[in-house]
Amino acid sequence: MSLKKFDLNKKNVVITGGAGLLGYEHAIALMELGANVYLLDVSIKKLHQQKIKLLKIFPRKNIVTHKIDITKENEIIKFVKKIKKNKKKIDILINNAAIDTKVKKKGMINSNSIETFKLKRWKYELDVGLTGTFLCCKHIGKYMVENRKGSIINIASDLSVISPDHRIYNKKKKIKFFKPITYSAIKTGIVGITKYIATSWGGEGIRCNALSPGGIQNNQNKSFIKKVKQLIPMNRLAKKDEYRSAIQFLSSDASSYMNGHNLIIDGGRSVW
Predict the structure, then answer these.
(1) Model confidence over 73-127: pLDDT tens digits?
(2) What is the DSSP track for 48-116?
(3) 265 in helix, strand or coil?
(4) How many CB atoms lie within 10 A of CB 219?
(5) What single string gives the DSSP state of each residue in 14-25?
(6) Of 11, 51, 179, 187, which residue is the catalytic one?
(7) pTM of the model
(8) Is 187 tagged catalytic?
(9) Residues 170, 231, 219, 169: what is their CA dihedral angle, to the nearest 10 degrees?
(10) Is the pLDDT reported for residue 130 higher than 90?
(11) Which domains does the chain have, with CATH numbers?
């Protein structure tokens, strides 16, 4: 296969959740191949910080930031209108925005068990992770259809195909941590959306695939890391940059006949 198929020179990429950890990694991956990026997030401050970091690596690249709440349909519509007005195409959409409760060094945070889970929180997290993905596909994807070519990548999780193993969380402490039920619901739903769009727009030149990453080592509690490593055949969590190549593949013509697939990269955890 020719490496030319990976070329994204002058392609325009929209990344939701652009101010986050994976948003940064996705941006680097695609800018390495020549793409211009539009970073979308709710925090203008974090977007500015992200842009500064990226410009240090790619000082001559075009990085555009937009403060957008993807749960608000009118804000996405305004963004697409602005893109159209500037006569820009959108070639790649990465639906990356999510809310994920972390296990931090100081110990477990939040009580996420289904018995105590608040309906208000359920609705909010589904709004961001699932409704936001739907709205971006609806409006940004529709614009891509008009141009008859493009790639949509929805970021799911290995927990879209397996359940969280609640045994790895420390339940002896007063504050008990569980992976929230919303996370499984959202990531499973994203795979469903992916398949729906793949069959709806495949004939219109739009490919839609999901990427399901496993856990990333990122300052978690040491005891948690030790436990979760035992669930992974490779006996480690992913490094921050280990999903870049997958994003490059799914975004480019290197995957030109891949459509409706959920690409799971989790060190083999879901194979057990």
Answers:
(1) 999 999 999 999 999 999 999 999 998 766 554 544 555 778 888 999 999 999 9
(2) HHHHHHHHHH-TTS-EEEEE--TT-HHHHHHHHHHHHHTT----EEEE--------BTTB------TTT
(3) strand
(4) 9
(5) EEETTTSHHHHH
(6) 187
(7) 0.93
(8) yes
(9) -10
(10) yes
(11) 3-271 (3.40.50.720)
pLDDT tens, 137-189? 999 999 999 999 999 999 999 999 999 887 776 556 555 567 889 999 999 99
Q: From the CB of residue 81, how many other CB atoms can be counted at a distance below 10 Å?
A: 12
Residue with tokens 């992913």: 238
The phi and psi torsions of 267 (rounded to 5 degrees) equal: 70, 10
**CA–CA gap between residue 209 and residue 152 (Å, rounded):** 6
Buried b (16+ CB within 10 A) or exposed e, 167-187: ebbeeeeeebbbbbebbbbbb
